[in-house]
């Protein structure tokens, strides 16, 4: 039954509505105030499920599962051969490059692939052993980075050496190193290294001011 009560205030009428629910319904609402609340494991937004890594890099596939509970487990499956790589915190892969990263009480179950190789490319599945099971697919793309060095072969003593390394891969800014013969070049003195990225790849410039004969040799990036 619905009862309307009028309350006069400052020349206006405010209407308050009171719902008189049967006792049995009120009791049920107290016992289960959220009857449609989810109580089984489900996937949270994983972000990017198309991961690209260069040969030799470490790839991370992030899977987020809520309400996992004590009985359900998260497993990582390699789809091409249906090989179970991990289940819970147990790693079944004989290849030690595969590991699972999970902090206690965290919703994140991350598959880590170290020193990625071209053969690692493909589809991986994050799977929860509910009934029925739920799963989410991730695609790992592995590229082989290639670089070309542009610049003069000869410079005069006292002039500036300016070499540019063009790499056909993005996300490499913190992984580009320059070598003079077999020695790694440091960011110091008259040596400058400037690295930038765009949507096509990575550019790294090596600048050596006031070059001397000791700067002769092979340069590698």
UniProtKB/TrEMBL annotation:
Gene Ontology BP terms: synapse organization
This protein's record includes keyword Signal: yes
Annotated TM spans: none
Domain Ig-like: 35-129, 132-221
Leader peptide range in chain numbering: 1-28
A Pfam family matched in the record: V-set
UniProt keyword annotations, A-Z: Signal
This protein's name: Ig-like domain-containing protein
Source organism of the structure: Scylla olivacea
């Amino acid at each position: 039954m619905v009862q309307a009560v009028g309350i006069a205030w400052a020349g206006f009428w405010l209407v308050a509505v009171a719902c008189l629910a049967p006792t049995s319904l009120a009791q049920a609402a107290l016992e289960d105030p959220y009857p449609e609340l989810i109580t089984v494991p489900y996937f949270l937004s994983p972000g990017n499920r198309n991961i690209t890594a260069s040969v030799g890099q470490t790839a991370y596939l992030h899977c987020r599962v809520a309400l996992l509970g004590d009985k359900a487990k998260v497993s990582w499956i390699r789809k091409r051969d249906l090989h179970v790589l991990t289940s819970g915190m147990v790693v079944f892969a004989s290849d030690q490059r595969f590991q699972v990263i999970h902090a206690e009480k965290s919703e994140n179950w991350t598959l880590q692939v170290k020193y990625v190789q071209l053969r690692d490319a493909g589809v991986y599945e994050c799977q929860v052993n509910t009934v029925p099971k739920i799963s989410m697919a991730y695609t790992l793309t592995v590229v082989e980075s290639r670089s070309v060095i542009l610049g003069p072969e000869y410079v005069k003593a006292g002039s500036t050496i300016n070499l540019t390394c063009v790499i056909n891969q993005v996300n490499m800014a913190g992984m580009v190193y320059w070598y003079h013969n077999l020695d790694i070049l440091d960011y110091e003195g008259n040596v400058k290294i400037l690295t930038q990225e765009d949507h096509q790849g990575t550019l790294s410039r090596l600048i050596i001011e006031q070059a001397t004969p000791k700067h002769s040799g092979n340069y590698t990036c």
